[in-house]
Amino acid sequence: MKTPGFLIYPTILFFLLVHICSAQTKEIDSLRNLLETADDTTQANILRLLGIKFRFIDKENAVAYGLQSLEKSKEIDFATGKANALYSLGLTHGMTDNYARSLEYLNKCLPVANQNKDHSMVCDIYNSLGIVYKRIGDYPASQESYLNSLKIIDSFDLKRNAASVYNNLGVLYDLMDEKDKAIASYKKALETYNGPDREAMQNDVEANIAVMDFTDGNYRAALDKFLKIVPYWEQQKNNIKLFDLYSNIGDCYLQLEQWELSQEYLLKALDLAKQLSLEQGKAVVYYNLANLMFHQKKFDRAIVYSNKNIEVLKGLQGAYEKKREAHEKAFEIYNTIDQFEKAIFHSNQAMAYKDSLMNETKVKEIQNLQIKHEVYLKDKEIKENELELALLNTRVESNKKRIIYLAIISALFMFSASLLYYRYRNKRKSNTILREKNTLISEQKQVIEEMNVELEKRMLRAQMNPHFIFNSLSSIQHLINSDNKKGALIYLSKFSKLLRQVLESSINVSLVLREEIELLKIYIELEALRFDDSFSYSFDIDENLDLDKYEIPMLLVQPYIENAIVHGLMPKKGSKHLTITFNDKGNHMECVIEDNGLGIIKSNAAKDHNRISRGMYLTEKRINALKGFSNQDLVKVENLNNNTGTRVTILIPKD
């Protein structure tokens, strides 16, 4: 039984891919890691590479990554990435037998590659189209695609692509039973090849020609060619190539009835098939060994190899033709040695697989017809698009003429307008100078207004500081009059410290929040001393608030604290406590002053309404100055529960 090498290659490739899956998995993980930090164009390329890696592992993932690469390339207007993604999707669908989608993406890729002037890719696209058309049995379309690829190669001197196209064209001619053209294409592949490994290319072409000789029954010519190739691949230690060669050589010797040499090479092929886990390869060799033993009338050995062949084929899906041949050979062996019961069993099995094969063939024929129909529809759509494009081109030509007429009219109009413009230009210059002066005046006005605002703030602060100092001196006087010398000295020491800080920061309208809080703490200590520590106090600062980043108008909060102590806490009997809280409220800093004193109502009743609080008056003016930086109410005063205290909330803009 002859076993042409080109029928074994797909099986060998499949099992070789299984062996490299673990290496691919590592590459996939590495690519996924790179994807997280890559820039836009690199992301598009990595997504395409992931699609390529998944082709023989998970088709859905392969297509998904290819589509992501395409979308990313469109998003960033990456023309080369778009062409590469379309081409990769075409190959992925072709390698997974979805030929209609493969042709769709390859045909979409073709105009993009032409637009990019990537002639090498155009050549590859036509070459791939030829392969797809060949697989669906549309040999004329396949031939046309290969010839288009060769035209591109000749037009743009792309010699590196030529050998592959000629080699594929040779296979097509062989399938079309045009042997002379096939051989001529193989020779042309050798003539045009200029790659680094010419001997490997020569051996591949020689192997294809040997297969043709074997198919034609020229077993001696095929054998000579196969034997000539063996030393090169033995030196390269390429066991995949050697398995195919040993198997074909053993088959040649079998056809030439040189039994010992046939057995020697078939056993070599069997050893390599076992090493490489090539299940279909083992089945082919077992079949030929059973055939060899049968011709030598070694029926026991023939039965052993026949059973091994059947056993291996059981584990393979499909392969009905191989299974039918295996049972037919078993029938032939058992029938020859008069074991009719087993012969009948294998005859029935062969018939069953023949029926399955016929069904499978019909299904494939229907599928190929469906694919051809889909391809026809796609081609029809492309032609319709071409007609539409031609119509658009006609419209463009008409528009060009209109544009010329409009250009002439526009030129006349521009000439007239230029005359008017020349007269208008002098007036325009004077207007420009006037606008520049107005702009300068506006800018100076804005600067003056900003200076006025800043001066107003400084004046308010200058008025604020004497008021605070006056209150502090009054407290010291009170301690001295009370004959509390120790308290007066402590108060005077703290007051001097406070006064020094106020004077040191006198050139600034505002202080950073940390410095303002330190001033407030010293002030409250002074008030506590003044009132014999009759009240307690605490500060609560939000840990999220950056005390060194934001500024606050100097002593803005102090009058509210003074009010809380003097009018809220001091008139009250019992425990007295004051809490000052600073919070971060987004665009504002929040200061909350809370006491457990008399409350607003009682406090107002106890106040001397004939006396105006100078400190509060100035503070209200400072608050009003801050309203230019915020559209919210900046001060809120409210009673606590049962009028037992007061809470003052002040919002201070950060900017």
TrEMBL record:
InterPro entries, per database record: Bact_2-comp_sensor_kinase, HATPase_C_sf, Sig_transdc_His_kin_internal, TPR-like_helical_dom_sf, TPR_rpt
Location of the Signal transduction histidine kinase internal region domain: 456-535
TPR repeats (start-end): 163-196
Residue ranges crossing the lipid bilayer per the database entry: 403-422
First and last residue of the signal peptide: none
Domain of life: Bacteria
Pfam families: His_kinase, TPR_12, TPR_8
Keywords tagged on the record: Membrane, TPR repeat, Transmembrane, Transmembrane helix
SUPFAM superfamilies for the chain: ATPase domain of HSP90 chaperone/DNA topoisomerase II/histidine kinase, TPR-like
Name listed for the protein in its UniProt record: Tetratricopeptide repeat protein
Taxonomic placement: Bacteria, Pseudomonadati, Bacteroidota, Flavobacteriia, Flavobacteriales
